[in-house]
Design brief:
Blueprint lengths: L50 H7 L5 H12 L5 E4 L6 H9 L4 E6 L2 H13 L6 E5 L5 H8 L4 E7 L4 H5 L25 H7 L2 H12 L4 H14 L5 H11 L2 H4 L7 H12 L1 H14 L1 E11 L2 H11 L22 E3 L9 H6 L7 E7 L5
Parallel strand pairs: 1-2, 1-4, 2-3, 4-5
Antiparallel strand pairs: 5-7, 6-7
Protein name: Ribosomal RNA small subunit methyltransferase H
Keywords: Cytoplasm, Methyltransferase, rRNA processing, S-adenosyl-L-methionine, Transferase
Organism: Nakamurella alba
Length: 371
């Protein structure tokens, strides 16, 4: 990659990403003390959704299937699960209701989602069994080393953008309405989509659209962006959507959904380093998965699913040299697939929740200690 195509340096760690219930980092330990007023928020708070509205807004995908798949590992006494993408807490609520002795460590980088999850957990009377942490999930190893050093019996990753982020128009994730070009999952820190669009060199911007959006007209789109940003920087989504629509040939616009869909996905993935975070988070989570514990990874686009499969698949295979009459323990597989291939939602669920259509679920169980 040419020097001009490098991703800009990551911002310095934000104080809001500290482990929020750790006494050493907060003199008044409170599992949600950093949620109501995120660091860097100019003293304000995010709008709070009533629990009922959150229930209407958020429909957890493949909920019953996930609960069933995790049941064998979470039914054990003293079971601990980590929800690495807590969001508004839909999956965690269902699991805490199903398993009265379960403890959940919920991680999310979005302070607004954490605030909503906290309210829902309190309303359900299960907040005392949930430990909420404001952090990106690639800190999962550090978090579990301190909160569950003996390991966890369940791990859940529900990847991608949440309903809350899509439906809160001011967050800038949706291309159907005009909004600030933000797209940060943690709006208290880091570069925005406008920063990417207005400052990346052309080569780097083409790479983002091609790699993260699989956009075959990336060069045409970027040429138009560079020409327009030289006149006036991009600040809102409507102008960018109109430019993308014009840059894509008319014949291509008639198929494949909204013409801005792939570019907006690419910008969101870049802004939040979603694939890099996943690459770092999965190995750390697996390191702390106890024998007999299960990991569930639900993705909504092929790039995430490929990463999950690439990291999990080798651990389901023997590493013994060919021809050994007996395979020693250290060469035995560490994981086994619970479901071959991926689980997909059925037609009934897709009819009820159209956002479930692209979901793919991979599930594995640890069968021996991590190497």
């Amino acid at each position: 990659m040419a020097p001009g195509d490098q991703r800009p340096p990551a911002p310095a760690p934000d104080p809001a990403s500290r482990l929020v219930s750790d006494p050493s980092s907060d003199p008044t330990p409170d599992p949600t003390s950093d949620v109501a007023r995120p660091a860097g928020s100019a003293g304000g708070t995010f709008p709070q959704l009533p629990t009922r509205d959150a229930d209407d807004l958020h429909v957890p995908v493949l909920l019953d299937r996930i609960v069933d798949l995790l049941t064998p590992s979470l039914s054990r006494d003293g079971a601990v699960m980590v929800d690495g993408t807590l969001g508004m807490g839909g999956h965690t609520l269902a699991l805490l209701a199903r398993f009265p002795a379960l403890r959940v460590i919920g991680i999310d980088r979005d302070p607004q989602a954490l605030a909503v999850a906290r309210s829902r957990l309190e309303a359900a009377g299960v907040a005392d069994r949930a430990d909420l942490v404001h952090a990106p999930n690639d800190r999962i190893g550090e978090i579990l080393d301190r909160r569950a050093p003996a390991g966890v019996q369940g791990i859940l990753f529900d990847l991608g953008v949440s309903s809350l982020q899509l439906d809160e128009t001011d967050r800038g994730f949706a291309y159907a309405v005009d909004a600030p070009l933000d797209m940060r999952m943690d709006p208290t820190t880091g570069p925005t989509a406008a920063d990417v669009v207005n400052t990346y060199p052309p080569g780097a911007l083409v790479r983002v659209l091609r790699e993260f959006g699989e956009e075959k007209f990336a060069t045409r789109i970027v040429s138009s962006i560079v020409r327009e940003r030289d006149c006036e920087p991009f600040t809102t989504s409507a102008r960018l959507v109109a430019l993308i629509r014009e840059a894509i040939p008319a014949a291509a616009r008639r198929t494949g959904g909204h013409p801005a869909k792939r570019s907006f996905q690419a910008l969101r993935v870049e802004v939040n380093d979603e694939l890099g975070v996943l690459e770092r988070a999965l190995p750390e989570a697996l390191r702390l998965l106890a024998v007999g514990g299960r990991i569930v990874v639900m993705s909504f686009q092929s790039l995430e699913d490929r990463i999950a499969k690439r990291i999990l698949q080798p651990l389901t295979e023997s590493t013994a040299p060919p021809g050994l009459p007996v395979v020693p323990e250290e060469y035995q597989p560490q994981l086994r697939w619970i479901v071959r291939g991926s689980v997909k939602p059925d037609d009934a669920e897709i009819a009820q929740n159209s956002r479930a259509a692209s979901a793919r679920l991979r599930v594995a169980e640890r069968i021996r200690e991590a190497a």
